[in-house]
Amino acid sequence: xxxxxxxxxxxxxxxxxxxxxxxxxxxxxxxxxxxxxxxxxxxxxxxxxxxxxxxxxxxxxxxxxxxxxxxxxxxx
Length: 76
Fold this sequence. Notes:
- The chain is mainly α.
- It has one domain (9-75).
- It contains 5 helices and no strands.
- The chain has helices at residues 8-20, 22-28, 32-40, 42-48, 55-75.
């Protein structure tokens, strides 16, 4: 699987949106079940948290996580 290029504008928007909903996400993660879910599948968990993030940004988040996972696997 090759590395997917991330588009700069959606990535900037993703960071802004994550900052906007940070407090709400922290509250949602206070539940140990939610925290475990987030650790296993962050994108699915963020959808369930109903943070108001648009689907295209959640997909961009999935790309970022996939890229990080790939880089960590290559480094190991």
